[in-house]
Structure formats: structure tokens, C-alpha cells
Amino acid sequence: MDAATAILLTIVTAATPLLLAALGELVTERSGVLNLGVEGMMVMGAVAGFGAGLLSGNPYLGILAAILAGMAMALLFGFLTLTLVTNQVATGLSLTLLGLGLSGLLGESFVGEPGVRLPKWLGIDILIPVSFILVAAVSYVLFRTKIGLVIRAVGDSHASAHALGYRVILVRYACVLFGGACSGLAGGYLSLAYTPQWVENMTAGRGWIALALVVFSSWLPWRVVVGAYLFGAVYILAYTVQTFALGIPSQLLLSLPYIATILALVLISASQRLTRSNAPACLGQPFVPDR
Amino acid sequence: MKKLMMSAAVLAVALGMSAASASAQEKLKACWLYVGAIGDFGWTYQHNQGRLAVEKELGDKVQTVFVENVPEADSERAIERLARDGCAIIFTTSFGFMEPTLKVAKKFPDVKFEHATGFKTAPNVTTYNAKFHEGRYVIGQIAAKMSKSGVAGYIVSVPIPEVVAGINAFMLGAQSVNPDFKVKIVWINSWYDPGKEADAAKVLFSQGADIMVQHTDSTAPLQVAEEQGKHGFGQASDMIKFAPKAQYTAIVDNWAPYYVRRVKDVLDGTWKSQSSWDGMAEGTVHMSPLTNLPDDVVKMATETEDAIKSGKLHPFTGPITKQDGSTIGEAGKPLGDGDILGMNWFVKGVDDKLPQ
Q1: Range of the domain at B44
Q2: Does the distance separating the beta carbons of B204 and A243 come in below 8 Å?
Q3: N or C: which terminus of chain A has fewer CB atoms within 10 Å of its end residue's CB?
Q4: Which of A199, A240, A242 sits opposite B40 (nearest CB)?
């Protein structure tokens, strides 16, 4: 493998967990729910995936466990925000804190254990093609099917959707659960393929980057791919440039991905065409059906 | 976010303490403040092993308490909390805890403070450190012997003197075997982030390095080496489980003897402020078993280790040529401790520029 291919593969590997988590959050937000607990769902996915893989010896079971753990966290979030109508921002933040703490507790005995690794297919991690299939599927469902239309309707005007007879809360539960599954999968990717091990807090803020990517993509699935790969590229480039010893301060290089993210967000927010047309109008608003 | 977690951690400790204090009134309270998670399997893990050793040795006379994941910028509150809650001796185990430790120590003259890897002492503040660079000299020699490309990758966190001294000792060791040995350095600005460490390792391997050295705490770089059929060295703990084919050896920190000794000193009333700097000779730094190496390299490494232990060899023996061409140190004499503890220059042969 030559240097360029190796770097390219590193970029793709770094971008995939961001892509998966952001894609799930995109669907959640499209239905009008803001779940800031991506980091917490991801880290729970990572610990559950690692644990299940280690105990069963089967990495695919690990991936399944990761997805289920993410969904369990999402279900909790859904119950609190949709059924009990708590504040979405506060609940999402506490979901992250809960996930980080709980995963540390559950994972205590996994520390220092080499786990199982997800096998590679044709030299690449299987979840990389999976992430592309998922993007295509989400894009298709959201914009080419009736289900997608209903999801977007619920996100844009829950009152109208409700008046038309659609079950707003049910649709939102489904989208929140999908978001949890994707975040859990992203976490499982971290602990079963990216760095096959469990360490506390191993998501290291990737959930927050995923959240930014959703805004960056202006809620369009294929733009999430662009955003994730761009972020991955700038981030890996920061390391590559360092090895050339050009004397550029490493702190500056390391902050480039974040500077790039902020710049992109500023540029996107400046364009009304990009934000207004796609942002779900009911994002973050609770829905209590009239009786 | 970290702040929130911190407060939660401090609160948990406070609760735990108040519950325990009733039953353990007469026991001496020894406390530890960690920058990372005890489950990092690296730096903090080893400190916690030291704490557990204290509990095992002196358990009937000592009660131990620890707070993990304390951000350096927000450590003052955590240290003060511990001092207020009756800790007799507090170990703060990260370089960045230095100023906060001194500040709190001023307010609590009766509490003993021990700060790891710093350089400022006070009547009730001791510093302790380990001569990690002794181990880095040994792995430098091994790397130069084993590398086919003549280039090592080196993953580092932040440019503090200990890290710089580590790079320099590694290069001096490598140059003693192969004067043209090169090192490529990547700073990741974090002590502990498996994902970043793995990415840095992948980038370094793709840029021609075939041996990985790390001054960060996770096992991720070694796992990458294992996957790619390359090699590397463990950091802080023996990481052979994660890289049975890739790890040559690891520089292991063993704080247990020091912690037991110092807590005993408090119990006996003989604790004094000092600067302790132990190395291979005292067993604070040791090399894990040499594996995946041919016999002649094992022999060379063992001899170097023995020479350092006996004091015959000092990694920083003058004169040393700096990156800018100037020299430091007298011929045949080791550099002074101050020169090493405050090291802010690279030796000749390191291409990287020191971030200022």
C-alpha cells in the first residue's frame, strides 16, 4: 500500500464513526427532535459492543449489542422527552453525562482486555460500505417515499401532521430510536474496529462533532458524507503535515479541523437558502396533542 | 462538560468521605488526584496500582481516597476539597496540577502535598518524578538496531520538559547505534485519546516509519503496529496483551514503593519536603520483558539497562550537541538534574521544531 492510499484509508476510517452518528441524528432532527445525547449513546454502544464481543467472542454479536445499547439509551430519551415532555436540550445533555458515567462503571472489568476485532472485507472495515448504504437508504426514504414525507411533515409542522391523522409521537419515537441505533453502531465501530479496546470516555467528543455535522449538512444526508470526510481529511492532514517537520506550530494544525467546522457553519448560516429551506421548523419543540 | 463531570466526581467523593469518616476516624487518610481514568491502562492506571499497594501494605492504618478525570485547568477546587475533607497527604499526579497544588498547600500548612513530575516545592509540598528518559535511551538503541527504514515514528502529547527529555534520550540512544537514525514526530495535544493515537500511528507508518514510540497513554498505537506487522514500545504499563507480536518492550512506571514509603513517613511523623527523582536503580522505572527481538539485541538492551542501573551509563552524558549546533555539558559528565528537568531544546538529529 503506498502512502497516499494509506492516508486516504486513514481519513475514511476516522470519518466513518462521525458519519454514522451524524446520519442517525439527522433523521432524529428531521422528525423535529433535538437529541444532544449522541455522545452518551455512542459511548454506551462502544462499551456494550466491546463487552458482548469479548464475552461471546463474536464481533458481529458485539455490533448488534452496540446498536441495541444505543437504542436503549434513545428509548430512555424518547420516554422522557416525548412521553413526559421534558426539555429536550437538558435531557439530551444529561443523557450524555449518564452514558459517560454508566459506560465507565459497566466497562470497569473490560479495561486492559484485548477484545475481538471486526474482520475486514477486502482490506477495509465492513462498516465503511455499510455507512454508504445507510446514507443512500436514508436519502431515499426521506425524499422518495411516503414514510419520509410523513417524517418531514412531523418535523416541519407537528400540528398539521397531527391534524391529518398521523401519529406524531410514534413517528418521533421511531426516528429517535433510529438515531440511537446509528450512534450505538458508531460506538461499536470505535471499540471493535477503529481501536479494538475499551477505555473510559473513548468517544472523546466525537458525538459533539457529529451534532455539528448535522447542521453543517443542512439536514441533507449526502452533505453529511461531505462534511464527515472533509473533517476527517483536515484532521488527518494535520498529522501528516507534522511529519514533514515544516515548523508550523502543532497547536495551530491540530485546531484546524475545528476552525474549519466553525468556518463552514458560519458560511452556511449566512446563506438563507441553505438553512431556511431544510431546517425542520419544529426542531426542539415539544408536542402535546390537544385532547 | 468536563466541569460538570468534575463537580459530580467531587460530590461523589465528598459523599463517600462523609460516609466513611464515621467508621474510620483514627485511620490516616491518603488521597490521590488523577488527571485521567484509572482504567486508562497507562499513566493513571499505574498510579492507581501504587495506591492499591498502599492499601494492601498499610490498609489497617490508612484509608485511601481518589478522584479521577480531573481536568488540569479546574483542579484547584478538587485539591482544596480533598484537603478540607481531612486528607493527611495528597498526591497530585499530573504536571498541570503544579500551581493549583502549591496554591492549596499554602492554605493548608498541616496537610502534606506530593506533586508528580513538577519542579516547585514548598515546606509542605514535595515533588516526585521518575527518570523515564533512562528507559527511552534503551528503546532508542533497540529501535535503531531493529528498524529497516531507519525512521521511527514518535507520538507525543504536549511539549513539557519530561517529554522533550524523552525524545532526546531516545535519539541519543538511537544515535549510539546508528548516527543517521531519523525520527518523525506527531504532537496530538492529548495524553489519552485512543482514536487520535491510532490515527497518528497510521499516518506515521504511511510516512515511512517502521517502529512506533509513544509518549501517550493508550494501547492504540501498538494495536496499529500489530495490525500492520510493524513494531513498537509500550508506555507506562506492559501492553504485551494488546500487541503480542509488535511490542519489543515497555517502559513501566512502578510507583508502589515510593507511595508506600511516603505514606509510612507520614504515619511515623518523619515526612519531610524533598524532591525525589528515582529511576531504574530504585525500580521506579523498569523495562518489561524483551520480546520479539533477536538475541544480540536483547543482550545489548540488557547490558544498557544494567549500566544505567549501576550508574555506569547516563543517557545525558556531555558534551551533547543541540539542534542549533551548540553543545552542552562537560565531556564525560552527566548533565545536571536541573538541565534535564527543564529541558527545552532538541538534540542534533531531531528535525521537529519545539512548539513554543
Answers
A1: 2-130
A2: yes
A3: C
A4: A199
Count of pairs with CB atoms under 8 A, one residue in A, one in B: 122
Strands (E), A42-165: 120-121, 124-125
Asked if A113 and B5 come within 8 Å (Cβ–Cβ), the reply is no
Q: Is B165 found in the same domain as B79?
A: no
Find the closest chain A residue to B197 by CA distance: A195
Domains held by chain B: number: 2
Predicted pLDDT of residue B5: 47
What is each CA distance from B214 to A178, A186, B160, in whole angstroms?
38, 26, 15
**What's the CATH code of the domain at B175?**
3.40.50.2300
- Whether residues A199 and B188 touch (CB distance < 8 A) is answered with no
Are residues B307 and B181 both part of a single domain? yes
Q: Which amino acid belongs to residue A122?
A: L
Residue B73 maps to a domain: yes
CB neighbours of residue B166 within 10 Å: 25
Chain B hits for A250, CB-CB cut-off 8 Å, are 186-187, 189, 355
pTM of the model: 0.85
Give the residue from B160, B199, B218 with the most A CB atoms within 10 Å of its CB, the best one to mutate. Answer: B199
Domains of chain A plus CATH, in order, are 3-276 (1.10.3470.10)
In a domain, B174, yes or no: yes
Say which DSSP state B334 is in.
B
Residue B18: is its pLDDT beyond 50? no
* Residue contact A111–B45, C-beta within 8 A: yes
The answer to whether residues B181 and B174 touch, using CB atoms and an 8 Å cutoff, is: yes
pLDDT of residue B25: 54
Q: Assess if residue B332 is contained within a domain.
A: yes
Percentage of chain B modeled with pLDDT above 70? 92
Identify the domain boundary among B79, B96, B130.
B130
User: What residues in chain A have per-residue pLDDT under 50?
Assistant: 291
Q: Which of A104, A204, A239 sits opposite B186 (nearest CB)?
A: A239
pLDDT tens for B119-134 read 889 999 999 999 999 9
Q: Measured between beta carbons, which residues in chain A are less than 8 angstroms from residue B223?
A: 114, 195-197
B242 domain residue, yes or no: yes
ipTM of the complex: 0.86
- Determine, for residues B37 and A199 on separate chains, whether the beta-carbon distance falls below 8 Å: yes
Clarify whether residues B166 and B306 are in a common domain: yes
Please judge whether B199 and A199 are an interchain contact, meaning their C-beta atoms are less than 8 angstroms apart. Answer: no
Pair (B184, B93) in one structural domain: no
What order of strands is seen across the sheet that includes strand B28-33? B62-67, B28-33, B89-92, B112-116, B125-130, B275-278
The tens digit of pLDDT for each residue in B244-295 reads: 999 999 999 999 999 999 999 999 999 999 989 999 998 999 999 999 999 9
- Chosen for mutation from B48, B186, B212, B224 (greatest number of chain A CBs closer than 10 Å) is B186
Chain B residues 198-237 within an 8 A CB cutoff of chain A: 198-200, 202-208, 218-220, 223, 237
Could you say which of B79, B107, B130 is where a domain stops?
B130
3-state secondary structure of A10: helix
Helix (H) or strand (E) holding A56, with range, is: helix A38-56
Concatenating the DSSP letter of every residue in B171-194 gives HHHHHTT-TT-EEEEEE-S-S--H
